[in-house]
């Protein structure tokens, strides 16, 4: 693979290639529609080790890979003992690798199916219809569609297109939403907002705080929904669906279809997060790692490119967005700080944090490291 990339030589003008692809406004889906059998050089990832599903950094294969835990929310509102048990499960998962799945979350399975289908329908519209939403103006546009938010910053592009929409705290103007999926995006966001408040209650309690603590400081107020579309790739071993990264959110709620490909780096291994029918994947984001003072982990995760597809997923990121009025300052929670556990991060605003996250792109380095004291 490295040889293939090196063979491009100095004649390959990456900047011009990126601009030409971006100017087409047709995304990775456009390449598939054109019938490509070789991926363009801008998508080549030289050393991503994509075939290592469960390999450690030393190259040793684990006979029993770690399993991402599944947390059952059934009955926790009426049974204090069961709720206490679930809080313990959440605490263990957040400390270990920051990932778990939830079932019996009360979001109807029909709605889960509809949002996956809605995202798929958007990306499979005629190219000219999709182009009308193509933009990189993340600060001013409610709805954006493009290939890779960090297209010009990352060392290699990922085999993925995305439609995104800020749905809270200010609901989007219905006239700005895409007809193919706008209504279901709003309906699904409303359901996920309710679930997130319950999840933040469990995470608050898992930190030893009042259950309302994280909700009261605004962690569940802002929501950005991303509908990812990963077309089947003709050379999946040469690229990535999404390269290794952490999320900038407080919390992320992810719905994935049944194709698979999501992996988290846990216990020094890349571990598959296997699709479970009607389950939602929950993971800790950088902002929660920061305010928990490293108690809970925002782990590296990635998505492998596949020869089958399309793979569709819907990620809901809970944090405030890039608005100048977002001046609220976040730092390690005072109740978690002591002489024996001093703050390891400095205070920051969400805007400062997200500006840094967007500027660096998905380069495999957690954004939270920039804010360590």
Q: What's a concise summary of this model?
A:
The protein is 28% helix and 19% strand. The chain is α+β, with helices and mostly antiparallel strands and 373 residues long.
CATH class: Mainly Beta
- On the 0-100 scale, what is the average pLDDT? 91
Give the ordered list of helices and strands: HHHEHEHHEEHHEEEEEEHEEEEH
How many H/I helical runs?
10
Terminal CA distance = 39 Å
Instruction: Tell me the CATH superfamily.
Output: B-lactam Antibiotic, Isopenicillin N Synthase, Chain
Instruction: Give the helix proportion (percent range).
Output: 25-40%
Number of domain units? 1
Structural class designation: alpha+beta
Extended strand count: 14
What does this structure look like?
The longest helix is centred in the middle third of the chain and has 25 residues, at 182-206. The chain has 10 helices and 14 strands. The chain is of the alpha+beta class. α4 crosses α7 (182-206). Strands 1-2-10-7-12-5-4-3 form an 8-stranded mixed sheet. Strands 6-11-8-9 form a 4-stranded antiparallel sheet, with no helix packed on it. It has a two-stranded antiparallel sheet with strand order 13-14.
């Amino acid at each position: 693979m490295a040889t293939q990339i090196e063979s491009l030589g100095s004649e390959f003008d990456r900047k011009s290639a990126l601009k030409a692809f971006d100017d087409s406004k047709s995304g990775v889906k456009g390449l598939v529609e054109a019938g490509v059998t070789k991926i363009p050089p801008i998508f080549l990832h030289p050393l991503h080790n994509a075939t290592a599903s469960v390999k450690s950094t030393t190259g040793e294969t684990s006979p029993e890979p770690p399993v991402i835990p599944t947390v059952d929310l059934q009955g926790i509102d009426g049974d204090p003992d069961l709720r206490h048990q679930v809080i313990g499960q959440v605490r263990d998962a957040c400390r270990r690798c920051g990932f778990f799945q939830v079932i019996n979350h009360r979001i109807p399975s029909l709605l889960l199916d509809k949002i996956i289908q809605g995202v798929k329908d958007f990306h499979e519209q005629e190219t000219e219809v999709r182009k009308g939403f193509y933009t990189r103006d993340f600060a001013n546009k409610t709805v954006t569609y493009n290939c890779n938010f960090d297209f010009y910053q990352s060392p290699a592009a990922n085999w993925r297109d995305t439609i995104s929409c800020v749905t809270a705290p200010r609901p989007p103007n219905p006239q700005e939403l895409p007809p193919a999926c706008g209504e279901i995006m709003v309906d699904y966001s409303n359901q996920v907002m309710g679930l997130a408040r319950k999840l933040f209650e469990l995470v608050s309690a898992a930190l030893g705080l009042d259950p309302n603590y994280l909700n009261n400081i605004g962690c569940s107020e802002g929501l950005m929904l991303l509908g990812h579309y990963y077309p089947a790739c003709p050379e999946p071993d040469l690229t990535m669906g999404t390269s290794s990264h952490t999320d900038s959110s407080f919390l992320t709620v992810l719905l994935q279809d049944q194709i698979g490909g999501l992996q988290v780096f846990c216990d020094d291994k890349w571990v598959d997060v296997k699709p479970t029918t009607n389950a939602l994947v929950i993971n800790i984001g950088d902002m929660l790692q920061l305010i928990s003072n490293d108690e809970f982990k925002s782990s590296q995760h990635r998505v492998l490119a596949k020869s089958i597809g399309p793979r569709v997923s819907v990620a809901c990121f809970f944090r405030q967005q890039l608005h100048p009025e977002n001046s609220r300052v976040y730092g390690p929670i005072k109740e978690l700080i002591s002489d024996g556990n001093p703050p390891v991060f400095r205070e920051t605003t969400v805007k400062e944090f997200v500006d840094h996250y967007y500027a660096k792109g998905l380069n495999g380095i957690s954004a939270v490291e920039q804010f360590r004291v």
